[in-house]
């Protein structure tokens, strides 16, 4: 039997851990702003603290502060501390997570980190309670008076970082499905990528699946001036109005931005778009509550859900909620393949 003291102290530690968890996020942001991953990468081997301090222009008086920041980032597995035989100084190498923060990587997640941890994105969380009681659609609106999308339209910096972040995810998804999800695209000739942004996903897939041809449908202002290729065409339009005909309609991280009513409208237009070819709709989305055995994965999925709620009044859905949308929009069947880490591929059939 555990003692009352043990329970009390465990509970106190639990509160402390949650209270200070934002320090993980802010330390990650600082590492990117200082360029720590790029500096270690450029060093080309274990980088001693003194060399890292010099490369980052951290003065000797702050060198111990940098060591303490690195100690946390080593603990959270962004770097590894190694011993270098001819020195008793700490030295650092990259890990799988910090390799995803390198400027030279096509899978660079740093731009998304900088959007999500920008003051513009963090400030709305201070007003979560106020938002729960007011009439605004999202916390972002309660704080800034406009939606994130409207705000980003007026901020080339945020818009650019968001698009870069999405593009890096596109490379990741196309690569993973190119290796482990080829069945999903077998026999699919033409695909419309609805809400496909600046075409990073479609480009990645066109390379992975050379037999396919891609049409990227997005808002006219997003696709204006973008150049396609033999296998890739941009169409400016509105998914609530109509979607071009194709063998398959692909939507990655689009439906979670919208309410159930809006999703049903979009899905009905998807169904219409595949009506002549009898094809399918392919979604890349989270299916929450699908891996309760993995505590960290579940927590991250719930973080996504609240992010969607905070920023754009969107939501992440469990299987039952997805199924309800598909059947309400007139589809007959669906298949979920959890092949993408926290996310799944969902094929929806007429
Ligand atoms: C969260 S982003 C996803 C981008 C892309 N699918 C990806 O995962 O990288 C949502 C996209 O939907 C587009 N979008 C918003 N409203 C739209 C509409 N009515 N018709 C077509 N696209 C729209 C946005 O411009 C944006 O590119
Ligand atoms: O991973 C994200 C993050 C955002 C996001 C977070 C905070 C902001 O102030 C703005 C945007 O938005 C996303 C999104 O809309 C999406 O469809 C997928 C992922 C993310």
Automatic annotation (TrEMBL):
<dbReference type="GO" id="GO:0032259">
    <property type="term" value="P:methylation"/>
</dbReference>
<keyword id="KW-0949">S-adenosyl-L-methionine</keyword>
<dbReference type="GO" id="GO:0008757">
    <property type="term" value="F:S-adenosylmethionine-dependent methyltransferase activity"/>
</dbReference>
<keyword id="KW-0808">Transferase</keyword>
<feature type="active site" description="Proton acceptor">
    <location>
        <position position="256"/>
    </location>
</feature>
<feature type="domain" description="O-methyltransferase C-terminal">
    <location>
        <begin position="125"/>
        <end position="331"/>
    </location>
</feature>
<dbReference type="Pfam" id="PF08100">
    <property type="entry name" value="Dimerisation"/>
</dbReference>
<comment type="pathway">
    <text>Flavonoid metabolism.</text>
</comment>
<dbReference type="GO" id="GO:0102303">
    <property type="term" value="F:resveratrol 3,5-O-dimethyltransferase activity"/>
</dbReference>
<keyword id="KW-0489">Methyltransferase</keyword>
<protein>
    <submittedName>
        <fullName>Trans-resveratrol di-O-methyltransferase</fullName>
        <ecNumber>2.1.1.240</ecNumber>
    </submittedName>
</protein>
<feature type="domain" description="O-methyltransferase dimerisation">
    <location>
        <begin position="16"/>
        <end position="103"/>
    </location>
</feature>
<dbReference type="InterPro" id="IPR029063">
    <property type="entry name" value="SAM-dependent_MTases_sf"/>
</dbReference>
<dbReference type="InterPro" id="IPR016461">
    <property type="entry name" value="COMT-like"/>
</dbReference>
<dbReference type="Pfam" id="PF00891">
    <property type="entry name" value="Methyltransf_2"/>
</dbReference>
<dbReference type="InterPro" id="IPR001077">
    <property type="entry name" value="COMT_C"/>
</dbReference>
<dbReference type="InterPro" id="IPR036390">
    <property type="entry name" value="WH_DNA-bd_sf"/>
</dbReference>
<dbReference type="InterPro" id="IPR036388">
    <property type="entry name" value="WH-like_DNA-bd_sf"/>
</dbReference>
<comment type="similarity">
    <text>Belongs to the class I-like SAM-binding methyltransferase superfamily. Cation-independent O-methyltransferase family. COMT subfamily.</text>
</comment>
<dbReference type="InterPro" id="IPR012967">
    <property type="entry name" value="COMT_dimerisation"/>
</dbReference>
């Amino acid at each position: 039997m555990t003692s009352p003291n043990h329970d009390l102290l465990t509970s106190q530690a639990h509160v402390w851990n949650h209270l200070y968890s934002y320090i993980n996020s802010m330390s990650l942001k600082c590492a990117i702003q200082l360029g720590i991953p790029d500096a270690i990468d450029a060093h080309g081997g274990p980088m001693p603290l003194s060399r890292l301090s010099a490369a980052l222009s951290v003065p000797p008086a702050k060198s111990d502060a940098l060591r303490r920041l690195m100690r946390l980032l080593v603990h959270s597995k962004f770097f590894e501390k190694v011993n270098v035989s001819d020195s008793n100084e700490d030295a650092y190498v990259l890990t799988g997570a910090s390799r995803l923060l390198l400027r030279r990587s096509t899978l660079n997640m740093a731009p998304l980190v900088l959007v999500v941890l920008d003051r513009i994105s963090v400030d709305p969380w201070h007003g979560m309670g106020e938002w729960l009681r007011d009439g605004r659609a999202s916390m972002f609106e309660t704080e800034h008076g406009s939606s994130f999308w409207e705000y980003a339209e007026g901020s080339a910096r945020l818009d650019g970082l968001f698009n870069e972040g999405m593009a890096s995810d596109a490379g990741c998804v196309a690569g993973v499905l190119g290796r482990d999800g080829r069945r999903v695209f077998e026999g699919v000739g033409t695909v419309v990528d609805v809400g496909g942004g600046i075409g990073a996903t479609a480009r990645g897939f066109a390379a992975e699946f050379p037999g396919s041809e891609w049409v990227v449908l997005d808002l006219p202002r997003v696709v204006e001036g973008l150049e396609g290729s033999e296998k890739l065409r941009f169409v400016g339009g509105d998914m609530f109005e109509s979607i071009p005909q194709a063998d398959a309609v692909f939507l990655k991280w689009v439906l979670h931005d919208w309410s159930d009513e809006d999703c049903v409208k979009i899905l009905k237009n998807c169904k219409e778009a595949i009506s002549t070819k009898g094809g399918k709709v392919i979604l890349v989305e989270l299916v929450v509550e699908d891996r309760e055995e993995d505590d960290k994965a579940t927590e991250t999925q719930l973080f996504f859900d609240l992010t969607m709620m905070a920023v754009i009044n969107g939501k992440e859905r469990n299987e039952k909620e997805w199924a309800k949308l598909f059947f309400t929009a007139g589809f007959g069947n669906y298949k979920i393949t959890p092949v993408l880490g926290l996310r799944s591929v969902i094929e929806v059939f007429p």
